[in-house]
Amino acid sequence: MSASPTPGGELPSGFGVCTTVPDVLFLPELIFGGLVWILVASTKVFYANPQGWVMFVSVFCFVFTFIWFFLFILGANQSSFWPGLDVLYHGTAALFYLSASVAQAYATILINPATNSTTNPYTGPGFKEYQEDIAAVVFSYIATLLYVIHVVFSAIRWKKT
């Protein structure tokens, strides 16, 4: 796989999107972003916490990454400004996900049943939500890493055009 799909450095279209770096990262970004969305949506919010931002980021990035991926498959990305837009979008998504990952980690620390329970923290109330929040933190950082890798390779491709 190469960072530049063609000698001219133009962006891939059709199913060529699934064979070039960084565009092959669209599907893992959608998978891990969707997992964050599902896990955060399934937990109970016990008090005011920053999970609203995490939900916004995961839904926003999921929807816009899907639209971006669809535009690439349709070949609507062949104008000269698209490589720069690709860097801008994935850079913004990476920053959003980094901030959401930190917020999710903080919310997870706040609901730790070992520090907030007088009963057995591993069988008591809130442990299931705690496990879901831990998984959301892990998947959120994986999504952050995927977006960072995507923006780096998109920037390399942009500089080659």
From TrEMBL:
Record domain MARVEL: where: 17-159
Annotated GO biological process: myelination
Locations listed in the record: Membrane
Highest taxon of source: Eukaryota
Membrane topology value: Multi-pass membrane protein
Entry-linked InterPro entries: MAL, Marvel, MARVEL-CKLF_proteins
GO MF: structural constituent of myelin sheath
TM regions (residue ranges): 30-47, 53-75, 87-114, 134-156
Name of the protein: Myelin and lymphocyte protein
PROSITE patterns, alphabetized: MARVEL
Family, as annotated: Belongs to the MAL family.
Tagged with keyword Thylakoid: no
GO cellular component, one term: membrane
Keyword annotations from UniProtKB, A to Z: Lipoprotein, Membrane, Transmembrane, Transmembrane helix
